[in-house]
Design a protein that fits this description.
globular; alpha/beta; about 30% strand; 5-stranded mixed beta sheet; 6 helices
Length: about 170
């Protein structure tokens, strides 16, 4: 009987330990649905969620173009916001032009489906945005290939090599 009691205690202890060890695997983060507004504590930047990704709302003009309310912003820990990847593909409602956004608030038009696919982008990740938002991004006309130091300026669909700061100013 004593041996049976010891075995029951050991088994219960193992089950409890296993449950505690596996608990983090079954705890899911709070979902943020499309259109959720997020801001990290101690930061003023507001982001909108699209397909589990965040996109920075660049200014009050863009914020207002969606009819958002300041009271709708959810303040979260910075680690939660940092864990969300960036939503960097947009197109204006009613327009076919797709743009890639960079971290500095500039857009670059993606000229064709072939170029789009060459970057490994997914068509489902294109957020439909207001024309006001598109207009608030400056054009990025400088490009560089991954792992290559050469920088090019895009002009009339052609790449012009920027060999120096001086040559940049002559373009």
């Amino acid at each position: 009987m004593l041996m049976l009691l010891k075995n029951v205690i050991i088994i219960k202890s193992l089950i409890l330990f296993a449950g505690l060890a596996l608990a983090p695997l079954f705890v899911s983060a709070e979902p943020y649905y499309n259109g959720t507004l997020l801001r990290a504590k101690d930061d003023v930047k507001v982001y909108v969620v699209f397909r589990d990704k965040k996109r920075w709302i660049k200014n009050i003009t863009v914020f207002n173009s969606y009819g958002y309310k300041w009271t709708g912003i959810k303040v979260v820990e910075p680690s939660i916001l940092n864990a969300l990847p960036l939503n960097n593909l947009v197109r204006a409602k009613g327009d076919v032009k797709v743009y890639a956004l960079n971290d500095n608030g500039f857009k670059r038009h993606i000229p064709s489906p072939e170029v789009f696919l060459s970057y490994g982008f997914d068509w489902k990740d294109i957020a439909e945005v207001t024309s006001e938002e598109i207009a608030n991004y400056g054009e990025s006309l400088l490009i560089r290939e991954v792992n290559y130091p050469m920088i090019y300026f895009l002009q009339d669909g052609k790449k012009l090599w920027v060999s120096s700061v001086e040559s940049f100013y002559t373009l």
